[in-house]
Write a structure and sequence with these properties.
four-stranded antiparallel sheet, globular, mainly beta, 20% strand, three-stranded antiparallel sheet, single chain
Length: 191
């Protein structure tokens, strides 16, 4: 497993943080897995989430991530970088809204961009929270296998030139979690 992202609650506060956790570490195996564990996407790296408390971490900070000990896919080994946090309002796919709210969102999209281009719903890129893009198919809700709640988008890893990551066919790996309990298994899909 290699580190992919480390996010502090001070930089990205939101409803996805479990009580007491102030650090989320996203790790993945930099190898495509065609036989991944349950609820992980075929043909993508296997993901692991670690919710931590920085006060409980001990020892000096690590200078850098260790090199993987086995063959890995170049496009799954990220270039070390620092992202700046940008807080955005991300709106859902139109069909995910109640019918009475859809015209207002459609008007907001038109008012936001002069040519009517949709730049405010399903914001693309690496993001914590928000709404999935669903640019390849219609919305597909995921349900928690433990409690049946509708899962919410926790994190999106998008293909981009900054990190050197290419997921699938220049797509996204999305991690959905249970809003009721962060210890319930998450679901990862490749889009």
């Amino acid at each position: 497993m290699v580190p992919l992202a480390q996010i502090h609650t001070r930089d990205a506060p939101g409803p996805w943080w479990p009580n007491g956790a102030d650090l989320l570490q996203v790790l993945w195996c930099p190898v495509e897995h065609w036989d991944p564990p349950a609820d992980q996407a075929d043909g993508s790296p296997v993901v692991e989430l670690r919710w931590r408390r920085t006060a409980e971490l001990s020892g000096p900070p690590v200078a850098g991530p260790p090199e993987p000990s086995m063959h890995y896919e170049d496009e799954y080994l990220p270039e070390p970088c620092i992202f700046s946090v940008e807080h955005l309002t991300d709106f859902p796919y139109r069909e995910e809204l109640p019918p009475e709210l859809r015209p207002a969102l459609q008007q907001l999209v038109k008012d936001t961009h002069p040519q009517g281009k949709d730049v405010i719903t399903r914001v693309a890129g690496w993001k914590l929270g928000g709404w999935p893009t669903w640019h390849l198919n219609h919305p597909h809700p995921y349900e928690c296998e433990t409690c049946g709640n509708r899962m919410t988008l926790l994190f999106t890893i998008a293909s981009d030139d900054v990190t050197g990551i290419v997921v699938g066919r220049w797509g996204e790996l999305r991690i959905f979690t249970c809003p009721a309990d962060h210890t319930h298994p998450f679901t990862a899909d490749l889009h």
